[in-house]
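It would be a great kindness if you could assist me with a short task in structural biology. The matter concerns a single protein, recorded as an amino acid sequence and a row of backbone structure tokens. Could you please explain, in whatever detail you think fit, how the structure tokens follow from the sequence? Thank you for your consideration; the sequence and its tokens are set out here:
___
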Amino acid sequence: MASAAEQLAASINFSAFGKATELKNRIWFTLGALMIYRLGTYIPIPGIDPGILHDIFARNAGGILGMFDMFSGGALGRMTIFALNIMPYISASIIIQLLTAVSPSLEALKKEGESGRKKLNQYTRYGTVLLAAVQAYGIAVGIEGMRAGAETAVLNPGLGFRLVTMVTLTAGTVFLMWLGEQITARGVGNGISLIIFAGIVANLPHALASTLELGRTGAISTFFIIVFLIVSVSVVAFILFMERAQRRILVQYPKRQVGNKMFGGDASHLPLKINTSGVIPPIFASSLLLLPATIANFQPNGGNLGWLGNFTSYLAHGRPLYMALYVALIVFFSFFYTAIVFNPTETADNLRKYGGFIPGIRPGKNTADFLDYVLTRLTVVGSAYLAAVCILPEFLISEYSVPFYFGGTSLLIVVSVTMDTVAQIHSHLLAHQYEGLIRKAKLRGRRG
């Protein structure tokens, strides 16, 4: 049965949207910030030849560069000031989360509340700058080695170009990090997620046009395009269902007497999502598997790659080894990241601290074991769901040259961010409706 809050949210009168001035301002701020981001994806860094760079990236479209170019909304392929996008920040956030699980000092900071969270955020920012600088320098060196025939992508290679590129790309990432935080604080939705979302969605029309062009030229049949669109809609519906699915564990709070009054005795639910790890497993798995292909494509003039060339051929899209390793890595990272973000022992201790207990389960270690057992079973289903969603598009990409933008990872990100943003809009509308009811009640009280 739906809770009272869910029932009220479902019955929100959206005609009140026009009166929710704060929500409209937040939406306009979010749209304006995303427009600034999209404009920045067309400002190139100095000292490169865009034509040669475009040819080189077209040749590397099937590697890790193609995937990160998708996340950056084409900024990496155009080598603009936002070429690194927000990925260094995400990597730094994941690294801090991993270190929090193994470092007692960082774990103590996490438990300090708001002050500890601010300190961890500061560490994440420092890590973002460091990672962005290292990646930017690596990109600068890599671009200098890129060639299209006898021509190079860099007009004046050397230390000056490397320093300018490093400063420009690092500043672009820091600006996007700040912009994402501003969207989160003053807009609607999670700013970092929305920046990635905007990059993917911005190129979806081009990806759809490319698919239709394949049908026009006869590379794929019209029947396949229709089936492909139906499958895409079905996959989106399936993702929506699975991302909303959760196991609700009943938590009971005992009654306690304070003076002559009785308090407590309430019951609530501890929601455990089927997909606790989110989109992290597919991103990590894709990055690892596409890395050998990227290194091989960087070799000048198709040099002799030896064992790397043979290994890369087995890791092509749609090959059995690629599919098997992709599924295995998704399953591994699903369990690994779930273990990082959810600690059954800590949750059991918090329940005991506030007097809560699961009916039929003793507090403490037994509760932690029960939560771990339930979470393990949910993660099995969640990892199988992620693998299924990601493998089907990979097959279409390899067999029919469907663009990356219809891959499982991109669909997961688009659907998840959309759900989160819509949920926040619902919350703002619900809060506005509550404020309106309170004002009406006060006016009636004064009249009475």
